[in-house]
Amino acid sequence: MGLVAKRAPNAELARLKENLSSVIRGKSEAIDQLLVALLADGHVLIEDVPGTGKTTLAKALAVSLTARFSRIQFTPDLLPTDIVGGMIYSAANGSFTFRPGPVFANIVLADEINRASPRTQSALLEAMGERQVTTEGASRLLPRPFLVLATQNPVEYNGTYPLPEAQLDRFCLRLSLGYPAREHELQLLNDQAFSPPLATLHSVMDTDTLARLQTEVREVGVEASVLDYIVRLVARTRHDVRLRLGASPRGSLDLRRCAQAAAFLAGRDAVRPEDVQRQAVPVLAHRLVVEVKARHGGLTGEAVVAEALRSEPVPA
């Protein structure tokens, strides 16, 4: 590959990362992944054990952006209309008017998304895929930018429903935070001594700036050899006999966009193969459905993508 032009890292993104890092200590890589998804205009599934800061990270992002934020606490009795809204009857004039639901926001926190029934979860499919909601035969556009941050606990199954494959495929990437290192947990205890850092957080970016950055990310160059590398990685998952379902074309698109966002975040004007490699597992692994026998043998989507990265030739 030719020389890649280098530019100064974006100052607005640096301030945004600093803001998030003041709340979520020692998780620079996870914060970078969140920013990659934000720049790529994609949705994020944050999957981790309880108490590691999933909801706090989502709320910190919402506070850091001058944007409309809504939180939906998913429960078994939640209905689709509780998410997208519905028609409300007015006794004054005898007519029905549409009342928007909490999905009509720039940043939507879908907390513990796997606690709602599949019927309710499906209410997000059109919103996440097409940035619109259709009710009573009328389609209504959602505000832009539009980002769904969903959280789920992967170790608790009582009262939960697995996310359908079609919904998982609409998440641009999946990330986890994990337990903090000892020094960061000590810092966390000191931070929380009087008031949580989230209470003093302030906005550092507006939606117009974010929209401009998302446009600039689309202009990051991707050579033909890198595009071919993306296609080969994705195709390998579709031909793996241990998988019931490989990555979709939407996965290829998201991998390209996330690689562009990663290059932009690093201050480069073109994608390198290592950008694709760094984003492959977060973008592709959650879309793969492992056959039952292979899953019981310990195979995971992450392992399949890692094998593909080791096997496929890397562009020079």
* Number of discrete helical segments: 14
What is the domain total for the residues? 1
Structural class estimated from helices and strands: alpha/beta
Give the CATH superfamily: P-loop containing nucleotide triphosphate hydrolases
Please tell me about this protein's structure.
- By secondary structure, the protein is α/β, with parallel strands linked by helices.
- The chain has a single domain (11-179, 213-308), classed as Rossmann fold (3-Layer(aba) Sandwich), CATH 3.40.50.300.
- The protein is built from 14 helices and 13 strands.
- It has a five-stranded parallel sheet.
- Helix 1 (11-21) packs across helix 2 (28-39) and helix 11 (249-265) crosses helix 12.
- The mean pLDDT is 90.
Task: For this entry, give a set of tags.
alpha/beta; Rossmann fold; globular; 316 residues; 42% helix
Produce a short descriptive summary.
This protein is an alpha/beta fold and 316 residues long. It has helices spanning 11-21, 28-39, 54-64, 81-84, 118-121, 125-130, 165-168, 182-191, 207-218, 224-238, 249-265, 273-284, 292-296, 301-311, and strands at residues 43-47, 65-66, 69-73, 85-90, 95-100, 107-111, 132-135, 138-141, 147-152, 171-175, 205-206, 243-245, 289-290. Strand 4 and strand 5 (95-100) form a beta hairpin.
